[in-house]
Design goal:
Oligomer: single chain
Shape: globular
Radius of gyration: 20 Å
Low-confidence stretches: none
Length: 324
Protein backbone atom coordinates (compact mmCIF):
# COMPACT_ATOMS: atom_id res chain seq x y z
CA UNK A 1 0.00 0.00 0.00
CA UNK A 2 1.36 3.41 -0.98
CA UNK A 3 2.36 5.72 1.88
CA UNK A 4 1.68 9.45 2.03
CA UNK A 5 5.40 10.19 1.71
CA UNK A 6 5.60 8.04 -1.41
CA UNK A 7 2.67 9.81 -3.03
CA UNK A 8 4.04 13.25 -2.16
CA UNK A 9 7.39 12.27 -3.68
CA UNK A 10 5.61 11.25 -6.88
CA UNK A 11 3.49 14.40 -6.86
CA UNK A 12 6.55 16.63 -6.47
CA UNK A 13 8.75 14.91 -9.06
CA UNK A 14 9.42 16.30 -12.56
CA UNK A 15 6.77 14.22 -14.32
CA UNK A 16 3.46 15.75 -15.42
CA UNK A 17 1.69 12.50 -14.58
CA UNK A 18 0.71 10.32 -11.62
CA UNK A 19 0.20 6.56 -11.69
CA UNK A 20 -3.21 5.28 -10.58
CA UNK A 21 -5.11 2.03 -10.96
CA UNK A 22 -8.78 1.37 -11.51
CA UNK A 23 -10.80 -0.30 -8.75
CA UNK A 24 -11.41 -3.56 -10.64
CA UNK A 25 -15.15 -3.77 -9.97
CA UNK A 26 -15.88 -5.15 -13.46
CA UNK A 27 -12.55 -6.86 -14.19
CA UNK A 28 -8.86 -6.80 -13.32
CA UNK A 29 -7.55 -3.44 -12.01
CA UNK A 30 -5.80 -1.48 -14.77
CA UNK A 31 -2.89 0.94 -14.34
CA UNK A 32 -3.36 4.46 -15.72
CA UNK A 33 -1.36 7.66 -16.07
CA UNK A 34 -3.28 10.84 -15.22
CA UNK A 35 -2.22 14.45 -15.58
CA UNK A 36 -1.39 16.36 -12.42
CA UNK A 37 -2.92 19.55 -13.84
CA UNK A 38 -6.25 17.79 -14.34
CA UNK A 39 -6.10 16.42 -10.79
CA UNK A 40 -5.63 20.01 -9.59
CA UNK A 41 -8.62 21.08 -11.70
CA UNK A 42 -10.72 18.36 -10.09
CA UNK A 43 -9.55 19.42 -6.62
CA UNK A 44 -10.50 23.07 -7.25
CA UNK A 45 -13.93 22.12 -8.56
CA UNK A 46 -14.77 20.07 -5.46
CA UNK A 47 -13.33 22.57 -2.98
CA UNK A 48 -15.18 25.46 -4.65
CA UNK A 49 -18.46 23.54 -4.73
CA UNK A 50 -18.23 22.61 -1.03
CA UNK A 51 -16.88 26.01 0.03
CA UNK A 52 -13.72 24.59 1.59
CA UNK A 53 -11.23 27.21 2.75
CA UNK A 54 -7.57 27.31 3.77
CA UNK A 55 -7.12 25.82 7.24
CA UNK A 56 -10.21 23.58 7.08
CA UNK A 57 -9.61 20.03 8.29
CA UNK A 58 -9.78 17.08 5.88
CA UNK A 59 -9.62 13.38 6.76
CA UNK A 60 -7.62 10.93 4.65
CA UNK A 61 -8.84 7.45 5.54
CA UNK A 62 -8.67 5.62 2.20
CA UNK A 63 -5.88 3.86 0.37
CA UNK A 64 -3.48 5.99 -1.66
CA UNK A 65 -3.30 3.20 -4.23
CA UNK A 66 -6.56 4.51 -5.73
CA UNK A 67 -7.81 7.82 -7.07
CA UNK A 68 -10.12 8.59 -4.13
CA UNK A 69 -7.26 8.63 -1.64
CA UNK A 70 -4.89 10.51 -3.96
CA UNK A 71 -7.50 13.20 -4.62
CA UNK A 72 -7.99 13.87 -0.90
CA UNK A 73 -4.28 14.71 -0.71
CA UNK A 74 -4.41 16.87 -3.86
CA UNK A 75 -7.42 18.80 -2.50
CA UNK A 76 -5.55 19.47 0.73
CA UNK A 77 -2.52 20.70 -1.23
CA UNK A 78 -4.54 22.88 -3.60
CA UNK A 79 -6.70 24.49 -0.91
CA UNK A 80 -4.13 24.31 1.93
CA UNK A 81 -6.37 22.17 4.07
CA UNK A 82 -5.14 20.64 7.31
CA UNK A 83 -4.86 16.97 6.31
CA UNK A 84 -5.46 14.43 9.06
CA UNK A 85 -4.39 10.91 8.15
CA UNK A 86 -5.50 7.61 9.63
CA UNK A 87 -4.70 4.12 8.38
CA UNK A 88 -7.37 2.81 5.99
CA UNK A 89 -9.73 0.61 7.99
CA UNK A 90 -13.38 -0.18 8.55
CA UNK A 91 -13.48 2.24 11.52
CA UNK A 92 -11.57 5.38 10.49
CA UNK A 93 -13.12 7.54 13.23
CA UNK A 94 -12.30 5.18 16.09
CA UNK A 95 -8.89 6.58 16.99
CA UNK A 96 -9.31 10.29 16.25
CA UNK A 97 -8.17 12.42 19.15
CA UNK A 98 -10.97 14.48 20.76
CA UNK A 99 -9.59 17.80 19.48
CA UNK A 100 -9.79 16.46 15.90
CA UNK A 101 -13.26 14.93 16.22
CA UNK A 102 -14.93 17.82 14.37
CA UNK A 103 -13.87 17.71 10.71
CA UNK A 104 -14.61 20.09 7.87
CA UNK A 105 -14.40 17.44 5.18
CA UNK A 106 -14.13 13.66 4.88
CA UNK A 107 -14.54 11.08 2.13
CA UNK A 108 -15.52 7.49 2.96
CA UNK A 109 -16.85 4.35 1.36
CA UNK A 110 -20.31 3.08 2.43
CA UNK A 111 -18.84 0.31 4.59
CA UNK A 112 -16.89 2.81 6.70
CA UNK A 113 -19.99 4.96 7.19
CA UNK A 114 -22.12 1.94 8.08
CA UNK A 115 -19.57 0.77 10.66
CA UNK A 116 -19.37 4.22 12.25
CA UNK A 117 -23.15 4.30 12.65
CA UNK A 118 -23.00 1.17 14.81
CA UNK A 119 -20.70 2.71 17.46
CA UNK A 120 -22.22 5.64 19.41
CA UNK A 121 -18.96 7.61 19.80
CA UNK A 122 -18.07 7.17 16.12
CA UNK A 123 -21.61 7.99 15.05
CA UNK A 124 -21.44 11.28 16.94
CA UNK A 125 -18.14 12.15 15.23
CA UNK A 126 -19.65 11.25 11.88
CA UNK A 127 -22.55 13.64 12.50
CA UNK A 128 -20.17 16.50 13.19
CA UNK A 129 -18.40 16.32 9.79
CA UNK A 130 -19.37 19.49 7.91
CA UNK A 131 -19.12 17.87 4.46
CA UNK A 132 -19.17 14.06 4.26
CA UNK A 133 -18.88 12.60 0.76
CA UNK A 134 -19.55 8.90 0.22
CA UNK A 135 -18.37 7.03 -2.86
CA UNK A 136 -16.89 3.80 -4.15
CA UNK A 137 -20.08 1.75 -3.83
CA UNK A 138 -23.85 1.74 -3.74
CA UNK A 139 -25.67 3.42 -0.85
CA UNK A 140 -28.66 1.26 -0.01
CA UNK A 141 -31.98 2.55 1.27
CA UNK A 142 -31.28 1.64 4.90
CA UNK A 143 -27.99 3.53 4.97
CA UNK A 144 -29.53 6.53 3.22
CA UNK A 145 -32.36 6.57 5.76
CA UNK A 146 -29.87 6.51 8.67
CA UNK A 147 -28.11 9.58 7.26
CA UNK A 148 -31.22 11.57 6.41
CA UNK A 149 -31.41 13.43 9.72
CA UNK A 150 -27.71 14.34 9.93
CA UNK A 151 -27.24 18.04 10.77
CA UNK A 152 -24.56 18.80 8.16
CA UNK A 153 -24.05 18.09 4.45
CA UNK A 154 -23.92 14.42 3.42
CA UNK A 155 -23.30 13.67 -0.25
CA UNK A 156 -23.23 10.65 -2.53
CA UNK A 157 -20.61 11.00 -5.26
CA UNK A 158 -20.63 9.89 -8.89
CA UNK A 159 -17.38 9.37 -10.70
CA UNK A 160 -14.61 6.94 -11.57
CA UNK A 161 -10.86 6.77 -11.97
CA UNK A 162 -11.10 8.14 -15.51
CA UNK A 163 -12.86 11.31 -14.24
CA UNK A 164 -10.31 11.75 -11.43
CA UNK A 165 -12.83 11.02 -8.70
CA UNK A 166 -16.34 12.52 -8.82
CA UNK A 167 -17.93 14.83 -11.38
CA UNK A 168 -21.36 15.05 -9.71
CA UNK A 169 -22.90 14.97 -6.22
CA UNK A 170 -26.34 14.34 -4.77
CA UNK A 171 -27.53 15.25 -1.30
CA UNK A 172 -28.57 12.42 0.98
CA UNK A 173 -30.03 14.58 3.75
CA UNK A 174 -31.90 17.81 4.35
CA UNK A 175 -34.37 19.59 2.10
CA UNK A 176 -32.10 19.10 -0.94
CA UNK A 177 -32.00 15.29 -0.67
CA UNK A 178 -32.53 13.70 -4.07
CA UNK A 179 -32.13 10.52 -6.13
CA UNK A 180 -30.56 12.64 -8.88
CA UNK A 181 -26.93 13.70 -9.17
CA UNK A 182 -26.12 17.31 -10.01
CA UNK A 183 -23.05 17.63 -12.26
CA UNK A 184 -20.48 20.30 -11.48
CA UNK A 185 -20.91 23.48 -13.57
CA UNK A 186 -18.05 22.56 -15.94
CA UNK A 187 -19.54 19.11 -16.64
CA UNK A 188 -22.16 18.23 -19.27
CA UNK A 189 -23.98 14.90 -19.40
CA UNK A 190 -26.08 13.17 -22.04
CA UNK A 191 -27.29 9.68 -22.99
CA UNK A 192 -26.27 7.55 -25.95
CA UNK A 193 -28.56 5.23 -27.94
CA UNK A 194 -28.30 2.56 -25.24
CA UNK A 195 -29.32 5.01 -22.48
CA UNK A 196 -25.79 4.99 -21.07
CA UNK A 197 -24.42 8.14 -19.49
CA UNK A 198 -21.98 10.18 -21.58
CA UNK A 199 -19.73 12.62 -19.67
CA UNK A 200 -18.15 15.74 -21.13
CA UNK A 201 -15.79 17.09 -18.45
CA UNK A 202 -12.96 18.87 -20.30
CA UNK A 203 -11.23 20.15 -17.17
CA UNK A 204 -10.61 16.65 -15.83
CA UNK A 205 -10.93 14.32 -18.84
CA UNK A 206 -9.44 15.00 -22.28
CA UNK A 207 -12.16 13.09 -24.17
CA UNK A 208 -15.90 12.54 -23.86
CA UNK A 209 -16.39 9.45 -21.74
CA UNK A 210 -19.08 6.91 -22.63
CA UNK A 211 -19.88 4.97 -19.47
CA UNK A 212 -21.59 1.63 -18.97
CA UNK A 213 -24.03 3.23 -16.51
CA UNK A 214 -27.65 3.20 -17.63
CA UNK A 215 -29.11 6.52 -16.55
CA UNK A 216 -32.15 8.77 -16.65
CA UNK A 217 -31.87 12.54 -17.23
CA UNK A 218 -34.01 15.30 -15.76
CA UNK A 219 -33.28 19.01 -16.17
CA UNK A 220 -29.53 18.51 -16.48
CA UNK A 221 -29.33 16.08 -13.57
CA UNK A 222 -29.16 12.29 -13.77
CA UNK A 223 -30.14 9.15 -11.89
CA UNK A 224 -28.23 5.87 -12.25
CA UNK A 225 -30.39 2.79 -12.87
CA UNK A 226 -27.61 0.21 -13.19
CA UNK A 227 -24.74 -0.89 -15.41
CA UNK A 228 -25.14 -2.11 -18.96
CA UNK A 229 -22.80 -5.02 -18.30
CA UNK A 230 -24.94 -6.03 -15.30
CA UNK A 231 -28.02 -6.69 -17.43
CA UNK A 232 -29.09 -10.34 -17.44
CA UNK A 233 -30.94 -11.37 -20.64
CA UNK A 234 -33.02 -14.34 -19.55
CA UNK A 235 -35.64 -15.79 -21.91
CA UNK A 236 -35.94 -12.48 -23.75
CA UNK A 237 -36.40 -10.45 -20.55
CA UNK A 238 -33.76 -7.91 -19.53
CA UNK A 239 -33.12 -7.98 -15.79
CA UNK A 240 -30.99 -5.27 -14.14
CA UNK A 241 -28.81 -6.86 -11.47
CA UNK A 242 -28.82 -3.78 -9.22
CA UNK A 243 -32.62 -3.55 -9.32
CA UNK A 244 -32.97 -7.11 -8.01
CA UNK A 245 -30.41 -6.43 -5.27
CA UNK A 246 -32.24 -3.27 -4.19
CA UNK A 247 -35.49 -5.19 -3.83
CA UNK A 248 -33.89 -7.93 -1.75
CA UNK A 249 -31.61 -5.86 0.47
CA UNK A 250 -34.20 -4.98 3.16
CA UNK A 251 -35.07 -8.66 3.60
CA UNK A 252 -31.74 -10.51 3.54
CA UNK A 253 -29.60 -10.09 6.65
CA UNK A 254 -26.52 -11.91 5.30
CA UNK A 255 -24.26 -10.52 2.53
CA UNK A 256 -25.42 -11.56 -0.95
CA UNK A 257 -24.89 -10.75 -4.61
CA UNK A 258 -26.91 -11.26 -7.77
CA UNK A 259 -25.00 -12.60 -10.76
CA UNK A 260 -25.64 -14.79 -13.81
CA UNK A 261 -24.49 -17.82 -15.74
CA UNK A 262 -25.12 -19.14 -19.26
CA UNK A 263 -28.13 -21.38 -19.78
CA UNK A 264 -29.00 -23.52 -22.80
CA UNK A 265 -32.73 -22.79 -22.59
CA UNK A 266 -32.89 -19.17 -21.39
CA UNK A 267 -29.56 -17.83 -22.66
CA UNK A 268 -28.69 -16.53 -19.20
CA UNK A 269 -30.22 -17.13 -15.78
CA UNK A 270 -30.16 -15.25 -12.48
CA UNK A 271 -27.92 -16.71 -9.76
CA UNK A 272 -27.84 -15.59 -6.12
CA UNK A 273 -24.67 -15.92 -4.07
CA UNK A 274 -25.12 -15.70 -0.32
CA UNK A 275 -23.04 -16.03 2.83
CA UNK A 276 -26.19 -17.10 4.68
CA UNK A 277 -28.53 -20.11 4.48
CA UNK A 278 -29.62 -20.88 0.93
CA UNK A 279 -33.11 -21.91 2.04
CA UNK A 280 -33.67 -18.52 3.68
CA UNK A 281 -32.58 -16.68 0.55
CA UNK A 282 -34.81 -18.85 -1.64
CA UNK A 283 -37.86 -18.22 0.58
CA UNK A 284 -37.29 -14.44 0.52
CA UNK A 285 -36.87 -14.38 -3.26
CA UNK A 286 -40.05 -16.33 -3.84
CA UNK A 287 -41.96 -13.98 -1.54
CA UNK A 288 -40.51 -10.67 -2.72
CA UNK A 289 -39.48 -10.94 -6.36
CA UNK A 290 -41.58 -11.15 -9.52
CA UNK A 291 -41.35 -14.60 -11.08
CA UNK A 292 -39.06 -13.51 -13.91
CA UNK A 293 -36.59 -11.94 -11.42
CA UNK A 294 -36.29 -15.05 -9.26
CA UNK A 295 -32.90 -16.82 -9.32
CA UNK A 296 -32.65 -20.19 -11.01
CA UNK A 297 -29.77 -21.13 -8.70
CA UNK A 298 -28.79 -20.31 -5.11
CA UNK A 299 -25.17 -20.80 -4.05
CA UNK A 300 -23.65 -20.55 -0.58
CA UNK A 301 -20.19 -18.94 -0.53
CA UNK A 302 -17.86 -18.33 2.39
CA UNK A 303 -17.28 -14.74 1.25
CA UNK A 304 -18.99 -12.53 -1.30
CA UNK A 305 -16.24 -11.43 -3.72
CA UNK A 306 -15.31 -7.77 -3.33
CA UNK A 307 -12.64 -5.55 -4.83
CA UNK A 308 -9.95 -3.93 -2.68
CA UNK A 309 -12.12 -0.81 -2.51
CA UNK A 310 -15.15 -2.76 -1.27
CA UNK A 311 -17.20 -2.85 -4.46
CA UNK A 312 -18.85 -6.07 -5.70
CA UNK A 313 -16.35 -7.99 -7.84
CA UNK A 314 -18.88 -8.78 -10.56
CA UNK A 315 -16.59 -10.75 -12.86
CA UNK A 316 -15.35 -12.94 -10.01
CA UNK A 317 -18.95 -13.54 -8.89
CA UNK A 318 -19.92 -14.58 -12.42
CA UNK A 319 -16.97 -16.98 -12.54
CA UNK A 320 -18.12 -18.53 -9.24
CA UNK A 321 -21.62 -19.00 -10.62
CA UNK A 322 -20.29 -20.73 -13.73
CA UNK A 323 -18.17 -23.17 -11.71
CA UNK A 324 -20.90 -24.41 -9.36
Amino acid sequence: MMSLDEFLAEWNNDSDYVHVQTSGSTGAPKPMLVEKRRMLNSARITCDFLGLREGDTALLCMSLDYIAGKMMVVRSLERRLQLITVAPSGHPLADLSPQLSVLSFAAMVPMQVYNALQVPAECERLKQIRHLIIGGGAIDDALAAALKSFPHHVWSTYGMTETLSHIALRRLNGAEASDYYTPFPSVKVSLNDESCLVIDAPLVCSERLVTNDIAELSEGRFRILGRKDNVICSGGIKIQTEQVERQLRPYLSQPFLITKRPDEKFGEVVVLLTEGPVDEARAVCKRILPKYFQPKAYLHVDKIPLTETGKPARKQAEDLAKQR
